[in-house]
Amino acid sequence: MAFSLSGLMTEDLAIDLGTVHTFVAVRGRGIVINEPSVVAVDRSDGEVAGVGNEALELLGQNPEQVELYRPMEDGVITDFDLAAKMLGHYIRKARGGRSAFSRRVVLGVPSDITSVERYALFQAVQAAGANRAYLIDKGYLAALGADIITTSDERASMIVDVGGATTEIAAVTRSHLIGSRSIRKGGSDLDTAILEHIKRYHNLLIGNRTAERVKMELACALPISKVNSAALENTKIRGQSIVRSVPEMMTIIPSEIHNAIEPILREIINALRSFLEDLSPEVGGDIHGRGLTLTGGGSLLAKLDERIANELHLKVKTAKNPRESVVYGASAMFENPLLLRRFSRQSG
Fold first, then answer.
1. Phi then psi for 2, rounded to 5 degrees?
2. What is the CATH topology of the domain spanning 191-255?
3. Which residues have C-beta within 8 Å of that of residue 132, sequence separation ≥ 6?
4. I need a surface site. Which of 164, 292, 345, 348 has the fewest CB within 10 A?
5. Per-residue pLDDT tens for 128-178?
6. Strand order in the sheet with 48-51
7. How far apart (Å, rounded) are the C-alpha atoms in residues 338 and 126?
8. Are domains 8-141+324-344 and 191-255 of this chain identical in fold?
9. Helix, strand, or coil here: 62?
10. Residues 164/188, Cβ–Cβ less than 8 Å
């Protein structure tokens, strides 16, 4: 998605502050931050030693000197001080030494965020140096960023944003959020399910990065019996044996990974079905005709679109840039002052 050069020096920022990953776009320059939502804290004095990629590098260099924290959980703040420092770091980095003119920030939030959680986010954004913050439903922003909202079509569309820790479901029109729902399950829950499965059935301890690699290589939303067997391959993993307390390598097969993640997938699909059942006949008819669009990093799970299409009997497509849809949508808000003003009545 292209960004307008107008207002370049106002340093308007669009932020997708996720539990697992953070994207920041500057109006006129596009995405400038694409880093993990982590903070490294020095064990000796409790001070922040690094944020994002730098935090992971410090952990790799001095694992005994620093401790890694995630200030966000399920899309909301769990550690205000660290969240404010992480945001401040990313805002300063995004500005890149540019002018300190008054800035606006559009930030995507889960649809089920409480007033207390909303206030904490609002305060953290202001503490990080923003003059004005707009907290807008992630589902609507994902729809805007995925280009399924057009100025010439008032029919309803459905968006499903599968993030790291939450899945946002929304029905939207050109200028209106019809309804939205958030379930606190996402891609990181699939990783945890894989990690726990391997621990339970193979007596092997693995880390989150290994679990994520297994998900990317083996996980499939469809039952293995419905997938072309020629495309399936086993994978080898290394971990720590619980029984012998020594490093060990073993082979993992696709069918067991599908079985491990199936309860999470079932919960997400059931939430989609429930959401559709609660829509009015008119909106439901629009969505039946147009289908739904998947966004978020979790939407890249193999065959997820086909699984949802089979279960819900809808056309399903994945957005062109699914991981960046929310931040693209947040950026697009600056190009529509009337829309931004309408949502500002609901922000902060």
1. -80, 150
2. Actin; Chain A, domain 4 (3.90.640)
3. 102, 103, 104, 105
4. 345
5. 777 888 999 999 999 999 999 876 778 899 999 999 999 999 999 887 899
6. 48-51, 39-42, 66-69
7. 23
8. no
9. coil
10. yes
